[in-house]
Design a protein that fits this description.
alpha/beta, six-stranded parallel beta sheet, globular
């Protein structure tokens, strides 16, 4: 984001506004970073202040005043505005995404700058960069449609943002005829941005782009979500691929101990030992204890002479009371004997850990410390192997324990502090990782948080960076997990490659499953965006946003439903043609049963007919696509077409690499004469065909964003494909006989057997009123199992059914079934065809989020 700001200013943009999150800590962090990284002296060493106007100033934004004067923060008067324009001195604003802050900035722009822009009579270019664009900048169209626009509580942040540049009232034009505006939103979790309607003026309209991250792989053509970083692991972005996929499970991410005090002790010992190893690797730097007592001539010296920040995060829940309780537990894990003693320590304001108790643990619990050291050595070997490192990262061996213990005793344990950071007025200050001036500006002190354990919740769950985060203890649980919210809580993601083998994340197993599922969905979304970037479009494309069976994509919108990819265990196509003319699907039945078949007799009763051979996944898909309906042509439906295109992208399936006639997946017929496509049905035969093609394609592909229906905790991208190939279903094809008169017209009369038609109720629109016919198995050993298990009676070996997600399924490896129903419509009308399928477990699935 700051790179775009820098390039824009270099290109002559007149003003840059950065919307820096909804929290004070994130706003100040962004302002500090902008000044440090962007606002540097030019090539002639011209001071930054003479080259731009910064609003607010660092001193004003950093003041401890809890209710700063917004007019002072965002104050620019008329003469200043005119000088900026005449001297082409750009304005750089960093505002908190709070309605009062944004309105204060808008008032300054509207009252001072835009009149000066109009008077100058030259084009004035404004760039607005919205950091964390899914936080505060989303509108829920359905909710707001029911709110009174005058008296109701309409969401004001998006409208206040637009008010920075828009004419009043907002009608799509800027506040000055000379004002040209570009708005760009940035977020790591864009689910709500993509799902919201264009009701929000900040919804993506012109383009979307996925920013790639440096890793050990990646190509430009085709685009991938990462790019190959030649400088190695130290420069990699270590996100979900590193923590959840590339390394063996339980390497970096562990399940915490069942007892919270013990879980915290294990995490704390890991953190302290990791800090000691880092300092042992670089003994020329001062540790946290030595740095605290040192004085430096310059800020740069204060950075270079001390260890890089080393931090731990304890995230118990969003509740402030739980965070203080977790801090008390931390003190007990560090050695205080009782909760009362820990609470007293906490409320006294002391923020050092109980040093004596921790030092004593080195003597009393040497096995625990040494076990952690062995664990780090094992992880270092796994990291070296996974990333092909030329050497294993240095971790002390047993003979070097005394040196590590000395670092623990002398620097790490006495130099470590803890902080409770939340919205409570009595909470500790936000993290500080930069040197500070000493009193009377007599030199510089090292950063306060060189070695700190932070206990926090929502304050640190979005945007705010914890430098050097090595250990995370995440105990938060949610009854209704939301992917975008919880993805932001993964603060352990980042540029951790320098010390990856020292990182530990302690998360309950159920939450680990969610984090892995979020990563798979996020990777699929990013791949989708990258593919869409290559399309020639005049507006922003709409990528598919995924959910899961156990989580939703976002809680910021109320009108989202879950759309599974798998059609279910027993989908039944109730759609039928009119009976007033011959049904073309009768020909499909005739062609299928022109091959050898046999009667199916159960307990002496003729139940139907069954083909002797079976069909594979692609053949069943072709058969389903051959079904034709005079009033159903969903081809061209934007959402359905886009979804199957997205799924093909997740599977890496293209026309160039399709070796099995699976591409394109979705082949629904388009409406005749360019008409409007039919609304896709849940029982759409063409969608079921697309699903079966996808299953076939995925048998040789580790597709992202998909899970197997029989093991939804495991991403499809990590399953054993050989086992999937061995258990892929073949489908039996049958005709269910009924109690009606035999079909009496060709082409069914051309078959060498009669087909008694079925008497089934038909609804007012001509669809079958029900689905499967006989579905209740009999109680006798030789009783009929029901239509959905029609073909099981053809085998001497028994087959089983299993329960999954509250539904009865055929198990993985069992045969599938396609069963035709020839429905008797009336003596003077033509029979019509309905189709039921039984689909075993074992295929791919995903859940798309769709607004309604």
């Amino acid at each position: 984001m700051l790179g775009v700001a820098a390039k824009s200013l270099d290109s002559g943009v007149d003003a840059v506004v950065v919307l820096a999150g909804t929290r004070v800590a994130l706003w100040r962090q962004t302002l500090d970073r902008l000044v440090a990284q962007l606002d540097q002296p030019g090539p002639e060493r011209i001071p930054a202040a003479s080259r731009r106007t910064l609003v607010p100033s660092l001193s004003a934004a950093s003041a401890d005043d809890e209710a700063p004067s917004l007019s002072r923060l965002y104050g620019v008067n008329g003469p200043q505005a005119r000088r900026m324009i005449s001297k082409r001195r750009p304005l750089v604003c960093v505002t908190m995404k709070n309605v009062h802050h944004v309105r204060a900035l808008a008032d300054m722009l509207r009252n001072q700058l835009w009149p000066a822009v109009t008077s100058a009579g030259r084009p004035f270019h404004l760039l607005v960069l919205d950091d964390e664009a899914d936080d505060g900048s989303i509108l829920d169209a359905r909710i707001e449609q029911s709110v009174d626009p005058v008296l109701g509580d309409l969401k004001q942040i998006p409208r206040s943002i637009v008010d920075l540049w828009a004419s009043r009232p907002h009608r799509g034009s800027s506040a000055s005829p000379s004002l040209y505006v570009t708005y760009v939103g940035y977020t790591a979790t864009p689910q709500a941005n993509f799902l919201q309607y264009d009701h929000n003026p900040l919804a993506p309209r012109d383009f979307v782009a996925a920013l790639r991250t440096p890793y050990d792989r990646g190509t430009i053509d085709p685009r991938r979500t990462t790019y190959l970083e030649p400088n190695g692991l130290h420069n990699y972005y270590t996100g979900g691929e590193a923590f959840y996929r590339q390394l063996p499970s339980d390497t970096l991410v562990r399940e915490p101990h069942a007892r919270e005090v013990e879980a915290t002790r294990i995490a704390l010992f890991s953190f302290l030992l990791a800090g000691a190893i880092r300092l042992w690797r670089d003994p020329s730097r001062l540790g946290p204890r030595g740095a605290r007592e040192a004085k430096f001539e310059t800020a740069d010296e204060a950075r270079q002479a001390v260890m890089r920040p080393h931090t731990m995060l304890v995230h118990p829940s969003a509740a402030i009371a739980d965070q203080y309780a977790a801090a008390s537990t931390l003190l007990r894990a560090a050695g205080l004997e009782s909760r009362e003693a820990a609470d007293a320590w906490l409320h006294s304001g002391q923020r050092a850990l109980p040093t004596e108790a921790l030092l004593q643990s080195l003597t009393d619990q040497p096995a625990a410390w040494r076990e952690a050291l062995v664990d780090f050595r094992t992880t270092a070997q796994q990291v070296a192997s996974a990333y092909g490192l030329p050497s294993t990262p240095a971790v002390p061996d047993d003979s070097q324990w005394n040196a590590v213990e000395a670092v623990l005793r002398d620097q790490i344990i006495p130099g470590t502090r803890f902080a409770v950071v939340n919205s409570d007025p009595t909470a500790d200050d936000r993290p500080s990782f930069e040197p500070s001036t000493l009193p009377d500006e007599d030199g510089w002190a090292a950063a306060r948080d060189l070695c700190t354990v932070f206990v926090s919740g929502n304050v640190m769950s979005r945007g705010l960076t914890l430098e050097g985060l090595a250990t995370s203890l995440f105990l938060r649980r949610s009854d209704e997990p939301m992917a975008d919210t919880q993805m932001q809580m993964q603060r352990w993601f980042g540029y951790r490659g320098r010390d990856l083998e020292l990182c530990r994340v302690f998360v309950p197993a159920a939450q680990q499953d969610l984090f892995r599922a979020y990563h798979e969905a996020d990777e699929a979304l990013r791949r989708d965006v990258l593919d869409l970037m290559d399309e020639d479009t005049t507006s922003a494309p709409k990528p598919q946003v995924l959910q899961g069976r156990g989580f939703i994509a976002t809680g910021k919108l109320a009108n989202i439903r879950n759309v599974p990819l798998c059609p279910g265990a027993f989908p039944f196509i109730r759609l039928m043609n009119r009976a007033s003319r011959p049904d073309p699907n009768i020909n499909v039945v005739h062609d299928a049963f022109s091959r050898p078949s046999q009667d199916l007799v159960v307990s002496g009763r003729l139940r139907g007919r069954l083909l002797n051979d079976t069909l594979d996944l692609l053949s069943v898909a072709t058969l389903l696509d051959s079904l034709a309906y005079e009033n159903y042509h969903p081809g061209g439906d934007e959402w359905e077409t886009r979804r199957w295109s997205s799924v093909a992208s997740h599977a890496g399936l293209t026309s160039a690499n399709d070796n099995g006639n699976a591409f394109p997946l979705y082949r629904a017929p388009a409406p005749p004469n360019g008409g409007q496509p039919s609304s896709p049905r849940r029982d759409c035969p063409y969608a079921i065909a697309a699903y079966l093609r996808l299953w076939s394609a995925c048998l040789t592909r580790h597709a992202r964003g998909l899970v197997p229906t029989d093991s939804p905790r495991i991403p499809w991208s990590m399953i054993d494909l050989r086992q999937r190939q061995a258990t892929q279903p073949c489908f039996r094809v049958g005709i269910r006989y009924g109690s009606g008169s035999p079909a009496a017209s060709p082409p069914l009369t051309d078959l060498p057997f009669q087909i008694p038609t079925m008497k089934r109720d038909v609804n007012a629109v001509g669809d079958l009123a029900g689905t499967w016919g006989t579905r209740n198995p009999g109680v006798q050993p030789d009783a009929y199992l029901g239509d959905s298990f029609f073909d099981y009676h053809a085998d001497t070996a028994p087959h089983s059914a299993v329960a999954a997600n509250g539904t009865i399924w055929r198990p993985a490896g069992a045969p599938g079934l396609l069963l035709f129903h020839i429905v008797d419509r009336a003596p003077d009308q033509n029979p019509t065809v309905a189709v039921g399928l039984a689909i075993p477990l074992g295929g791919p699935d995903q859940f798309a989020a769709r607004t309604t």
